Amino acid sequence: MRRALALLVLAGSLLATGAAPAAADSFVPVNGAGSSWSSNAVDQWRRNVEQYGMRINYASTGSSDGRNQFKAGTVDFAITEIPYGLKDGGVVDTPPSRGFVYMPIVAGGTAFMYNLSVGGKQVTNLRLSGEVVTGIFTGTITSWDDAAIAKDNPGLALPRRKIVPVVRSDGSGSTAQFTTWMAARHQSAWDAYCKAAGRSTPCGVTSSYPTIPGKGFVAQPNSQGVAGYVAQRGNVGTITYVEYSYALKTGYPVAKVLNEAGYYVEPTASNVAVGLLGARINTDESSPKYLTQDLSGVYTNKDKRTYPLSSYSYIVVPTSAQNGFTAPKGHTLGAFASYFLCEGQQQAEVLGYSPLPINLVQAGLDQVGKIPGATDANVDIKKCHNPTFSADGSNTLTKNAPQPSECDKQGNDQCDKPTGGAAPAPGKGSTPSGAGAEPSTPAKGTTSTGGTGTAGTGDDPGTDGGAVTGPTGTDGGGDAGTAGGGGGGAVVAGATTGGGPVVCSDDTGECTNLVSMPVETDAPQSGGVGPLAVVAACLLAVGLVVIPPLVSRGAAARKARR
Amino acid sequence: MSATMQAPRVQPEVPRDADVPRPIGTRRSLGDRVFRAVLLCGGVAVLAIMGFVGIFLFLRAWDALSQAGWDFLTTQAWEPDSGNFGIAAILVGTILIATVAVVVAVPFAVGVALYISEYAPPRLRQSLISIVDLMAAIPSVVFGLWGFFFLQGHITGLARWLSTTFDWFPPFQVPGSDPDDPLATATVYTSSTFIAGLVVAMMITPVIASIMREVFTQAPVGEREGALALGATRWGMIRRVVLPYGKGGMIGGTMLGLGRALGETIAVYMIISPVFAIQWHVLANGGSSVSSLIALRYGESTPFGMSALMAAGLALFLMTLAINFGASSVVARSRSGASS
Amino acid sequence: MADLAPARGEVRRQLTGLRISDLLNLCGAGAAAVALTALISSQLAPVTSPLGFVALAAAIFLALYALLVSLAERGVAVRDRLVTVMVHGLAFTVLAVLVFIVVFTFARGAAALPHLNFFTDDMAKAGPLDPLDVGGIAHAIVGTLIQITIALVITIPLGLLTAVFLTEMPGRFARLVRTVVEAMTALPSIVAGLFVYATLVLALGVPKSGVAAATAISIMMLPIMIRSADVVLRLVPGTLKEASYALGAGQFRTVRQVVLPTTRSGLTTAVILATARGIGETSPVLLTSGFTAAMNSDPTSGPMVSLPLAIFQFVKSPEPTMVARGFGTAAVLMLLVLALFVVARVIGGSNPLKKDERRRAKEQARARRRTSRSKRPARLSSLSALAREHAAAPGGSTPVKHTPVEHTPVEHLPLEPSPQEQS
């Protein structure tokens, strides 16, 4: 399905571009290195431009390695999440002496994928505020039944289970993007954590996540590693930060994160793109942070659809012909740049990223002309076939991106629709131009039906009336009575406060909350025989087998002696 | 076949009556002199290359070493950019992984070696030898993939059982685990030194087995015959003749396996969850190793961080060097080692 | 890999002889163990994992088997049987696990392997979203072959020269070289890559390319090869060289016509084992070869990818097709290593040697049968003669070293280093 879609997208983009890049014929190979976070997109793009005769070689060896190699002149471009001149762990990374500019290349949201179940059923509609996310990943919130989590999730009664944060063991771009956000928004908590981990403060952005021994954090290499770890069935209680695409592909849900407008939103491509509309680029040429991102506008974007942990990675391109960089290379790189800023972004969503919105594309196109030899590159935004705006330059994203439903509003009972990879696969997929990912896809026939009426909400222990409580789960005893009547509660809540743009009638059918299912405990049945009885029975069984031959042998020996 | 782990011949030849070529006093011909010059050049070139690598390692490490000083040996944390780093935890972690690997691998390797040299039908023997040699050459990335995609998810049951059954044995305790809590997750048993050690064990078993098989096969036939003639069972013969004869080879093989386990990169990289504190609990989550740390961090480290990584590499290098020397001196003194 | 001991006529006796009672004991203990484990795990103490089941069954089996044997035999024999069973068990466990690792790799790569394009295409026209019938790893295969060829061109002459140097010109300097080389076999392989990156690429301006990668691989392979070759060369009997000198040959001639031919098969194996290690290493090429998805057969310019590097990149992708490609690539890499072993056997000339050995062994066996049939005492006397010969050997060391030289050199020295030398 996705493949067919991808081919369609590709075909569409080919038709649309026409002969623009194909006219330029004298391409030479260009080499780059850097971010492994962006590599999936870059890998697809370099394959797409291969047909124009462009050869882009990209080694995803890590952002810092990319920056160092660009500085040393061994590559023609680098892709990185962290610009030069920042302190990573207290050491300033000096910019290269060769001329360079930054351009946005790949955008995406940091998703929080988790593996959590209540009473044997997977939780798929977790919501978290920024404070809670920071608390979890700085080790101050350690149990899923923490009051702060309960406050975000009035519809869930989470068990007293340990939270196991899974972080990246290698240096990575997703760590950099996550810590950029934490350093900007929750600096004191982040600095306190860093300090406990033995780093100098202020900690700021870092690409290798510090861990404190004994805190119960798990570190794994690569996105594949963290996602795979969380997705192991036994690892219940784990949560990790990872690209949205990994959650989709492993079939696990992601947490909705609270934004400035008071809505909990999922890191879908359109939500990230909407968020990035708030990104500003430093255009002060005298500043050492010239052309680097200022994401504070993203974190505080008032749009209801904003996913706050949105960011993008840079491509660092040279502006002077030195270190083996030549005008023909610049020509190729310029053509590639105008490709990935425009047509290439149409595939961003299928690849698990988000398309760059108009403000970032414009900022990027402004820089393309500075690459030596790339003067003829397409820098007219009107000819840019980016999915987030139309040919006349109007921002279609703000018009078309779906609004969050009212049940996602802070304080309301949460939606029951599963998130991330736990959501049923979209039947038709999203259209190439529609940046909206899964816009209110009817979730039908998931495991979430059934059990609505089995238990009343009346005997919910300890929660205020009407709120949905899952089974307490700690006893594992299998008493279905504690299971809340989630369906009813959620529907009522949605209806009373409702009236949001998203049709809730679709949802009502599936509002039978996943977590409100009757308890099916997977704990081993501990009742019955006690351990002493087991030992006794084992001894008896062994004795039955062993004693007769021993007796007979003894008898034989005695006989022989006689 | 023969050649096993050789002792580095530091002192010329061992027994006085061994057949050493006599020193020849005649003048060498022109051809010979040229030949010797070429040989010398080869030796010098290799020494230069290897020396360069060593010097390179030392120079790159110097920055970090000079800043950290002796604390480098005692600090457990690894935050080079904050000036707070040392190899106490990662070196111990490396040794622990290697120890687990060797402890698991040696019994299996002895089993394989004895089977091939003593029990296998002669028709099968040759193919078994080839299989084991081939297994020793499986690329380590394959083991890493297996450990990451398969073993990691299937071994926690064993780890849990070990930790609950042998609770009285401190290294097997798992802090944070509570067997009585039905909601306890398996995560405390994952990414442990134990699992990494198992993968490395699978990697070094064929290597060790191959060496041991070599020495076992070389056990003198006459002595075997003697033992059997005196009424020994096959095991009696093995215990009294083969094992004592092959002791040097067994130790040497183990040491070489240990060396490889200490330096293993990719397989450990894929399993371990690095923790920068000495982690004695081998079954508990978290561990560390020098070479996997280098592989994990080199892409995203600052020049000073790189220097710290090189310093860790240097420490590992010196340690492995010491182990190699230890192994070779043991082997050189043993019976079978003399000719191997 | 020839066995030394049988080569000199001392043939080990085959200790077999399976009696029906042994077989019955095994079967009985096995059946009882499985039954008992099933009983315990299903009724008494739940054993959830299959691994636990097998372990429990094995323990019960050993206990029951010991019991059964002890009914008829004395303690010594019981221990012998137990050890026999345990050795078999350990050996088969290891083989099973290793075979499983190989099979697992093939199984996970099974989606990619049936496509012919996987072996004939490069990845230039295949991205993460493309199905498996587009793109392949031909570029990585070619890259690996080119890189390993360059590495061999560097290491074989240098490695063998140094190994000969170590044996032919012993002295303090040789000792130093040997010490350094042995230390270098323990070098973490990523350090070799860093070294080449810092010197060749950064300082000397060689672009990241096949040559740079091959140099890094060479630095990793060189100590391994020297060490293995050194072992083999040192085992050449002094008598052999002495005979050559006595005939008036110079040192060069002795090395060329006596030492090298004698150790040919061993040296080949040394080369192959170093190659097998070098071909499978990711870390040295990670920093030095660059990365490309396209075929590049020019090692001097442009990035060139090799099989381990391709695996490493493939399995990091979120796309299942890419992960399948990664496993497929791993399978291809293993096949390549296997092919190398076959090549080693063919080129290394161990075949004629072994054939020779086998022929001799067969002749001896025939002769023994003849003699034993006609006159039994003769065989006994020949055995005791053998034993006497062995006892006379100083130190009781291996037969080879002390047997007098009588035939062509080749016959004495089926010398090969063993795989451990690669470590």
From TrEMBL, chain A:
Transmembrane segments: 532-552
Domain of life of the organism encoding this protein: Bacteria
UniProt feature, compositional bias: Gly residues: 463-485
Classification via Pfam families: PBP_like_2
Biased composition (Polar residues): 387-403
Gene3D superfamilies hit by this protein: Periplasmic binding protein-like II (3.40.190.10)
Signal peptide: 1-22
Family recorded in the similarity comment: Belongs to the PstS family.
Bias type Basic and acidic residues, positions: 406-416
SUPFAM superfamilies found in the cross-reference section: Periplasmic binding protein-like II
Domain PBP: 30-342
Annotated protein name in UniProt: Phosphate ABC transporter substrate-binding protein PstS
Automatic annotation (TrEMBL), chain B:
Domain ABC transmembrane type-1: 91-327
UniProt-listed Pfam families: BPD_transp_1 (PF00528)
InterPro entries: MetI-like, MetI-like_sf, Phosphate_PstC, Phosphate_Transport_Permease
Cell location: Cell membrane
Membrane topology: Multi-pass membrane protein
SUPFAM superfamilies: MetI-like (SSF161098)
Membrane-crossing residue ranges in chain numbering: 37-59, 87-116, 128-151, 188-209, 266-284, 304-327
Broad class of the protein's primary localization: membrane
Keyword set, alphabetical order: Cell membrane, Membrane, Phosphate transport, Transmembrane, Transmembrane helix, Transport
Region: Disordered, residue numbers: 1-24
Cleaved signal peptide residues: none
Domain of life: Bacteria
Family statement drawn from the similarity comment of this UniProt entry: Belongs to the binding-protein-dependent transport system permease family. CysTW subfamily.
Its job: Part of the binding-protein-dependent transport system for phosphate; probably responsible for the translocation of the substrate across the membrane.
NCBIfam families for the chain: phosphate_pstC
Name of the molecule in the record: Phosphate transport system permease protein
Encoding gene per record: pstC
From TrEMBL, chain C:
Family as reported in the entry's similarity comment: Belongs to the binding-protein-dependent transport system permease family. CysTW subfamily.
Subcellular location: Cell membrane
Name by which UniProt lists this protein: Phosphate transport system permease protein PstA
Region (Disordered): 353-423
Function per UniProt: Part of the binding-protein-dependent transport system for phosphate; probably responsible for the translocation of the substrate across the membrane.
UniProt-listed CDD domains: TM_PBP2 (cd06261)
Transmembrane segments: 23-45, 51-71, 83-107, 137-167, 179-203, 326-348
Membrane topology listed for this record: Multi-pass membrane protein
Regions of compositional bias (Basic and acidic residues) in chain numbering: 353-366, 403-414
